[in-house]
Design brief:
heterodimer; A: 110 residues; mainly alpha; 3 helices; 2 strands; 4% strand; B: 510 residues; Amidase signature (AS) enzymes; eleven-stranded mixed beta sheet; 16 helices; 11 strands; 12% strand; globular
Chain lengths: 110, 510
Amino acid sequence: MPAISRDEVAHLARLARLAVTEDELDLFAGQLDVILGAVARVGEVAADDIPPTSHAVPLSNVFRPDELRPGLNQEQALAGAPAVEEGRFRVPRILDEEPLAGSGISGEEA
Amino acid sequence: MTDLTRLTAAELAAGIHSREVSAVEVAQAHLDRIAEVDGDAGRGVHAFLHVAADAALASAALVDEAIGAGSAPASPLAGVPLALKDVFTTIDMPTTAGSKILEGWRPPYDATVTARLRAAGITILGKTNMDEFAMGSSTEHSAYGVTRNPWDGTRVPGGSGGGSASALAAFEAPLSVGTDTGGSIRQPAAFTGTVGVKPTYGGVSRYGLIACASSLDQGGPCARTVLDAALLHEVLAGYDPLDSTSIDAAVPAVVEAARAGASGDLAGLKVGVVRELGGEGYQPGVRASFDAALQLLEKLGAEIVEVSCPHFEYGLAAYYLILPSEVSSNLARFDAMRYGLRVQVADTGSAEEVMAATREAGFGAEVKRRIMLGTYALSSGYYDAYYGQAQKVRTLISRDFAAAFERADVLVSPTAPTTAFPIGDKVDDPLAMYLNDLATIPTNLAGTAAMSVPSGLARDQHGGVELPVGLQIMAPALGEAVMYRVGAAFEAVRDAEQDGPLIRRVREWS
């Protein structure tokens, strides 16, 4: 039995915001199954009482002085944007077109 | 001076600082060489994605001007040309990380590494090719086409930093900068007969380094000699308040260590051979070169001891869970809203649809695979068995290193299990590609330091020309000095015994 099904891969692609094609699903499902089979080896290690390491350097609470320093100005921050309007990032609609129940606001961009 | 592109960075610096040759002449010689051999992905080395000829010449002219006015050079490498991996942001050059999703992007700020290079008066020639977002071991996963290995144009240069390594081996630059997440500096160094160093995690700032896996990524120097790598190491390394994982400690004195090592005495030093990094799965020619390297180290007076790191065999599995998990999180920033590619979805496409269509079009197959793998490993229900368990294995690998460094000052292994493989050989088999990183990954998981130094040549089962093999030298965290000392000593004795530097045996590119 495969470790991961084609349907599960389609679900992962949706979660990861990747509009993968049907052909890619066939390809990736097989490849991810092989990779997962190999990486599942970590389970062979008896590590019940071993603490996890998320980071190799034992640093915590790294602070710097709370001093003003220059950041990006508006023009610099917007320089690489795909679309700009009135000094702001212009983005596709982020809400449904139907008015939100009880909110009194419409999803359409004004 | 004769052919400026054949000199080491140290030699070039000496010539420039004594006004025997100008930094502009040196920059021009390298730009000419790039124009001659770099070509495009179809023909040519294709180490560069962007060549900044005008900026390079302007920067070199400033160095000449300062030296002419009697000022001390800005650094020991002022005026020396360098190739920068296209994963470091540069305000005056495009930065793509080898991805279509960042095609043509001009970052609004310089990486700390970029800023340090500029402050040191180093001439940045341009940006080098790489596997997309540093995911790959062959540079075949670049969205802009493969980089070729100067030793044999049908072979890969390794990856992800194949551009930075090939630029050195093709004499397009005497210095380059790479990044090493699982071997992306060391394995290309081994494949191209050059020197590559992965510093201690936190030793070189990650500010402005486009993230692959944040807990593993580390920038470092690439060069054709150990001394040149050391000189560049001291430019790149040092505390940076803009990187919260930067180590606030003195930079190890690696130049001094490299100079001391070149005298060739390793008496009293213990070199540990890691039993688990060798043998089965390693090409016979690679094993032979490694055995010969051990004999040379012994000849230098080092004591060879065998050490065991029993959890290293799980390193690859742990890495390919931890890395994709961090990748899936880091690459969420490519959302088609603030910078980079945006693919329109009809007129009514929602932000979510635009995001998914953009990421589908902008990312290559390997990046998508790793994003999905990481998304899976972090999902509830699988988290403990995959990501959680991998993090525990990471602890055990660090403990293996700690125990081994109780018994030896440095550890050694072959850098990669094989020599450079043919272009196209592994690109459709992700797992076979991952196996390249077998020997380099433990160092990244533990955050320790390691370097690859050329050890010899070997022919593989495909026949053809002999190809370079690398010796990996591993040191404890912040133990770079002893690592450079051993590397320089080994380089000196290998060159003396085997007819000069290995890199002289690279064929002339045609």
